[in-house]
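Escalation from tier 1.

The customer reports that the assembly of two entities below gives different structure tokens on two consecutive runs. Tier 1 could not reproduce it. I'm attaching the input and our single run for tier 2 to review.
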Amino acid sequence: MSQSDKMPIVAMQQLGNRGKTQMLNVEPIENGTVIDHIRAGKGKKVVEMLGIDKNSAGRVALVMNVPSKRLNKKDIVKIEGTFLNEEQTNLVALMAPQSTINIIKNGKVVEKREVEIPNLLKKVGICPNPNCICNTEHAERIFSKEEQGFRCHYCERNFKADELVR
Amino acid sequence: MDLISIRDLEKKEIEKILDLAEDMAKGKAKRKYDKIIATLFFEPSTRTRLSFQSAALRLGMNYIDFTPETSSIKKGETFLDTVKVISGYADILVIRHPKEGAARLAADVVNTPVINGGDGGNQHPTQALIDLFTIRKTKGKIANMNISLAGDLRHARTMQSLVYALAMFGAKITLISPKGLELEPKLVKEIEEKFEAKIKTKSDLSFEDADVLYICRIQEERFADPYEAKRVKEQFMLNMGHLQNAKKDIVILSPLPKINEISEEVDTSDKARYFEQAHYGIPVRMAIIDYVLSN
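Tier 1 run:
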């Protein structure tokens, strides 16, 4: 990501069996968040888990299968008019641990976050254990990071990161 | 303080509680309490509920008892609202609930100390403390003892707490369970890494090296196939034949209840110490109440 989001995202898109390629342009955003380096195929889930839908205020672009040196292929999500908070950043970290978050203001990247899952995850993720009390009573979701994965504060079971984002 | 999980306790704290329980067993309770304990059992219980009530009475306390069948739970009141209300009626709460994490959640939202009396298939820390106390009483120590844990290791909450505590104290553990009912591999890995525990696994009831055999019930309701449940249950019924090659001084323990997983001949042998173990519930739970209220 450059220091400016004036450059549009350009993706090479394969068109069926004809083998031809076509440039796919996505308009840059003036203010908002760009989530880059999402592993290909996870972008749609990121959009879903962030609760972005037709009721969201700004425009949203999901670009899939963008060629990437680091990942071979990646997804990118651009969200106009929304600056991800800590909780949302943690959520992205769970789903796409190698992604980067760029906060854009007046067309410039003013903050670049390498996402990292914190040692204590609060308010994000869902305990996959159906018998865990946090799935039936009003309880703040809390998971602590351990060597083997993430331990639910309540049922004490250990899960992999992607199990927490169903 | 609260007592929710065996993971919350350091070895030193457990030793303090066990020492305190020794004093309680000798009738040397240092403190009496003008307080009320509430027992909130959302699941059936004989030993845990009655021994907590008895322990409280012996510490000079009174108790109030909650049963969901005759409470506003029947009208749809939530678990948390129930706990919030009762926390104002008592000075300490003992909670058993079928949902895992219920006691933890309660402890998070009320200022009254909470003791976990069993939460789903997760934890039963006070039973583990009774088990440790019984092993120490009957064998003199826990470290380096060969302890075989047999039965449904996957679903029994007593096993989740006990295996962790035994590993913490340096016992040599053998896990014996039918296929599909093994202890959760992540838990085995956790205690191997955390305590460098020595753990063996097998599926037959043989106890040549065991100093202690701890057996818990095969839970038929966990099987999809009733025939398979019956077969496994029969295979895991302990009789004197299984103990032929065992050490003469092997001690057999169980969290109880036992239905028919231990034969009558074992029941009457001097190796069976589970009723004595159940009775240690009183001094140990007196020690737990005392420890929780004074910390």
